Each structure stands twice: as C-alpha cells, then as structure tokens.
C-alpha cells in the first residue's frame, strides 16, 4: 500500500463508520415506527426528526472531510442540508398531524431519490463503477417517495408502515454507500 492510500485509510474508516451509524439509526427509527403503530406517529415525530437530523449532519460532515476526494460529494452536501432542514419540521412543529408525517417523509424520499439519480448521471459520465447501483437506489427512492404521497397507499398499508418503509430504504442507502465507497474515492 503506498503512502497516499495509507493516509486515506483513517478517513475511509471514519466515513464508513459514520454512514453505518446513520444507517443503524434510520433502521432503528424504521423498526420503532413500525412497532409503535399508526396512532403514535405524532408522539414519535421528534425521534424521527432527530434521526433525520443526525443523518443529514453526517452527510454534511462527510462532505467537508471528502469534498476533494469523493465523486459526487456536492450531492452529499445537498442531501445533508435538505435533510437537516426538513428534520426541523418534525422536531419543532408542535401542531403536526399524523397524516402529514408520511407526506412529509415522502417528499424527503422523493428529493433524495432525485439527488441520487443526478449523482448517478455524474458517476456514469466519470466512468465510476457502481453508478448503476446508485441509479437503482435513486429509482427505488423516487418510486417509494411518489407512492407515499398517494392517499390509497397510506390507507392500504397504514401510515406507520409507509413511514417505516421510507426510513428502511434510507437506511439501506447508507449501507450501500459503505459497500461502494472505495469506488467513489477519486
């Protein structure tokens, strides 16, 4: 291993650990939402907002650490800032209604899906392997975001299940990033 790669290793491990923590937090929020039930969505909204805030801040931090060495790092910044700002709605809005939570998280999912598709396009242009997986993940996020905005989906599955699925998909995206991180390093 040459000196340049050896010096990147601590940053590499740190990025993967942080993405792993974000994934675990979103998975736990997903499980918590699923188990708590539809009637507790308003009650757990601050916890959902905190998990979003944490994942957004992680993306911002990783952007600052890797902005020169990571393909598509500017999309991490966009995702981190938007996620952090959107989390404030769940954290501090005391008049939130349960029906708004799936809609709100669906918009978040839709936006992150669009960002991943934009990132996918850049990765393809730069001939980075793994771009197809970003495209697949962005498409899944886009479809689930649109589906969560449809009232019949909420009624059929239950609002808590829709929210749990969105959080689960978001958690999966972090573990996917861990898997292909080495391919994204310039």
Summary, kept brief:
This protein has about 190 residues and is mainly α.
How does this structure look, described?
The chain is mostly helical and 186 residues long. It has one domain. 84% of the residues lie in helices and 0% in strands. It contains seven helices and no strands. Helix 1 (3-36) packs antiparallel against helix 7 (159-184), helix 2 (41-66) runs antiparallel to helix 3 (73-92) and helix 4 runs antiparallel to helix 5. The radius of gyration is 17 Å and the shape is globular. The chain starts with a helix and ends with a helix.
Overall tally of structural domains: 1
How far apart are the first and last residues' alpha carbons, in Å? Answer: 16 Å
Number of strands: 0
Element pattern in H and E? HHHHHHH
Cα Rg: 17 Å
Sum up the overall morphology in one term: globular
β-sheet strand percentage: under 5%
Poorly predicted ranges: none
Helix content: over 70%
Main beta-sheet annotation: none
List the total number of helices. 7
Structural class of the secondary elements?
mainly alpha
Q: Average pLDDT across residues?
A: 86
